[in-house]
Every structure is written in C-alpha cells, then in structure tokens.
Amino acid sequence: MLLCLIIGMFEFRVNRNIDPKGLSARKKSMMNIEQQNNSAGCSALYLTGSFFSVDNRFLLIEKGRPMDETSKFNNFSHEQLVSIVALHKDRSAFKILFEYFAPRIKSYLLNFKISNQKAEDLAQETMLVLWQKADKFDSTKAKISTWLFRVARNKYIDQVRKQKYAEVNADDHVDLLVASERTDQNLVEKQNSGRMQVAMKTLNDDQLKVIRLSFFKEMSHSQIATATGLPLGTVKSKIRMAFQALRKELGEYQ
Amino acid sequence: MKNNGIVPDEWIVSYASGALSEAHALVVATQCHFHPDLQEKVNAAEDIGGSLMEDSEPSNMSNHTFDDLMKQIDTLQADDLQPLNDNDLPTPLADYLGNRSLNQLDWRLMGPGLSQVRLWTGPNDERLWLLKAKGGTKMPSHDHSGLEMTLVLKGSYHVGQDCYSPGMLEMADDNTVDHMPIIDQGDDCICLVMTEAPIKFNSLIGRLLQPFTGL
Q1: What's the rounded Cα separation, in Å, for the pair B121 and A163?
Q2: Do A105 and B53 touch (CB under 8 A)?
Q3: What is chain A's alpha carbon radius of gyration, rounded to the nearest angstrom?
Q4: How far apart are CA A114 and CA A97, in angstroms?
Q5: Which residues have C-beta within 8 Å of that of residue B34, sequence separation ≥ 6?
C-alpha cells in the first residue's frame, strides 16, 4: 500500500512537471494505465491521465477490500464520469450521473405542463441517449449539463409538440467547432458550479423575466410581449441585453 | 427592417430555449452551419439552459427508474449507424430532409424561372419551403403580413443595394413593402424560406398564381 502511494506521488510529480497547468492532457481520449504490483499488496493501480492532470487525483484499489460500486468515483467530475461511461460502459459511473441529472431533467421538463410520468419517461430517455452516445461527448467543447439540456429539449419538442427541432450541434459535425486555448480556459471557468446563479443575479428584473419565460415557458418573443405587456421591440432588446450580460459574466462574451 | 445578414441574438436565445417553431428553428440552425461564431453563441445560450436545468430543485424519481433503464439497455441492439450526409447541404437541413439531395426533392414550378418544395406548414399558417430561382429572375413584387426569413444556400440575390450570398439571412416583415429580390446572373439561387403569413403579391399575375403556389 505504501509503495503504491509512493508510485502514485512520483507519477503525480512527473505529470505536473510535464504539464504544469494540467490542461493539455484534457482531450477526449483518455490514457488508462493499469499497473500490477502484487508484492506490495496492491492488486491494481489505476492512473487515468486526463483525470490526473485535471484534478490531480488517482484511485487506489486495494486487494480484497470490497468497495461500494459508486464510491470509487467519489470526487470525479461529471465530465470525467461520462468519459468512463464512454470507454468502459461502467454502470456505477452511469448511476452517479443518472441520480444527479435525471431528477433535474425531470424538474426542467415539468415546467412545460406535462404529466409527472411523461417527464420521468423523457428524463429516462435522455439518460439513455447519454449511455448510447457518451463517446460523442467532448468535454473540451461543452458541459455535460448543456449536452443533456439539448437532448431533453429536443425529446420534449419531438414527442410532446410533435415537431422536428433542427440541431445546431448534431454529433456528426461537432468537430467543426475549433477548440482554442481560450475555449479550454472558459470551460474550466464555466464548470465552476453556481456561476450561473451568480450571473443571473446581475440581471435586472425584466431581463430575468424574459430569460425565464424563454427557457421555462418556451415563449416566443411575441408571446412574452403579450405576457409581460412590454412592446415586442423591447422584449427583443431585453433578451439581447440579458444574453450579452450572462455571456460577459460567464467569461465568454468578447 | 434592419438587415446585416446575420440572425440577431434574441433569436439565438429563443432557438436555444426551444421557443421557436419547427420552421424558425431550421432556418436559424441552418444559418449557424455557415458561421462558427453563431454556433458558439448557440453553445453559450444552451449553457444558460443547461445551468438553469442543473440549478432546478431535483424532482423525486420512481424507485425503479434506473433499474428499468438498465434492463432496457440490456435488450437494445447495437446502435444502427446513421447514414452520413453525403451531399453538400448544411447538416441541420440535410438531417431535416432525411439526407435526400436537392435533386431528389419534388420541385414544383411556381412561376417563370421559379420552383419550390414545400417542407412544412405550421399551426399558425407558418410555411417552410425551399425556393429555386434561375439566375437573372426578378421575384414578383410583394408585401408581407408577418415575418419572412430567407436564408441563401446557393447562388445570390440583391434587394436594392443589399446583396445576399450563401449563409446570409434576410429578414423582412410587414414594414417591408414592394419587396422585389432580383436573382444575380449565373447559377440558380436556392434559399430556405420561412413565412409567418401568406405573402401579398402586388401584381395581378402573382395574385392569380398564389393559390397554386400555396404561399
């Protein structure tokens, strides 16, 4: 066990020296190293390159010690768990993602006046897509919450509104998006939880209202104008201003 | 109506939130295919949606939901491979057309040098269609009762001094009168068009042909 820790720390230092910012290894393919060291009593030492460089974590699995199926992934980010699902179809990693996101997807869908059962079914179908297409997800280009939001939105529009909603970022042309260092840096910033809540607080009441009516009531510009009593042109400009303010607050607006 | 050929941000937000109709969404998504910066804007707007969703108070799920899903996964066959888009249309449009090429569509004559494919009619009289016009064709002068979004896919046209080429979007509304696009000489011009209400032709011939064009 002690030897495992020493090896782990050595690898940690090497990795830090090569890539002090811990960014370059965060690409969509992961390096997965398994080392056997039976003499030290360790059955396996998993060092996963991208995890290691992003979060400086490693996972030790001790011989003969039963582990909770999901506890081995404690402290892994959601994006890292998606990578594990993509590479290994690991059900424990998927369960963590399911238990976190499915209830939130359901809550989002319940805004649209559909039944509890329908919202649950759509949440389940959304998570099924994640299981099937986890390998299409590129954490350098999108947050997993964004990806799931997109799938849930389209499932709702397809099945409840019976419309086809054209996808801007369909899986087969995601590679057209060029990931720059700026994009990488923004992603790290974007992944800090709660930033959106903070950003939303910078909006004034009208801006907050038009954003919420758009996302939670799927109202068009003219419907928002009717609901709020604001002129159509004012609704448009408030949505524009709110969007620009949120992008600026989230470090994306140039 | 002010035009710079690029869809305004409020439409990006409405696209991301799911608030657009099928026709509006296809026009916006197809223009984004031409402009990476628009794709980034859509990502940013969808980030807002994702964050709002993630910040939602979690709902209770039935106890067996996860196990049911895993059983479903066990019975699923390997994913069918989706046919690749082998034509040069923007992907959102190619997906919408079921990966048929433009030549495989049912083009119908709608006037001299003009043909169309009707793609979708919405509940509020919205129409989504493809327009093909021969180079040099003058579109009949018309007015609008609602918004008209015209996204150029191939070729180009002028409205007065403004030129619209592939990837550019023209938005015309009821403030736009005597709208008379002129197709540039040369190749056919093909556009994806969304109209919120029937257009109003100013010429007798246009009005006579309107019942047959369905526009």
Answers
A1: 11
A2: yes
A3: 22
A4: 24
A5: B90, B166, B167
Do B43 and A150 make contact, defined as CB atoms within 8 angstroms?
no
Beta-bridged to residue B161, according to DSSP, are none
Using CA atoms, how far apart are residues B128 and B175, in angstroms rounded to an integer? Answer: 21
Do residue A164 and residue B57 have CB atoms under 8 angstroms apart? Answer: no
Candidates B12, B51, B95, B175: best to mutate against A (most CBs of A within 10 A) is: B51
Q: Find the distance separating the first CA and the last CA of chain B, reported in whole Å.
A: 21
A136 CB within 8 Å of a chain B CB: no
How far apart CA A162 and CA B120 sit, in angstroms, is 12
Residue A249 · residue A239 · CB < 8 Å: no
**How far apart, in whole angstroms, are the C-alpha atoms of residue B200 and residue B142?**
5
What does the pLDDT look like over B161-200, one tens digit per residue? 889 999 999 998 877 777 788 999 988 999 999 988 777 7
Q: Is A246's Cβ below 8 Å from some Cβ in B?
A: yes
- Nearest Cα of chain A lies from the Cα of B138 at a distance, in angstroms, of 31
Record the pTM.
Answer: 0.73
Cα distance between residue B40 and residue B31, in whole Å? 13
Predicted complex ipTM exceeds 0.85: no
Question: How many angstroms separate the CA atoms of A78 and A100, rounded?
Answer: 9
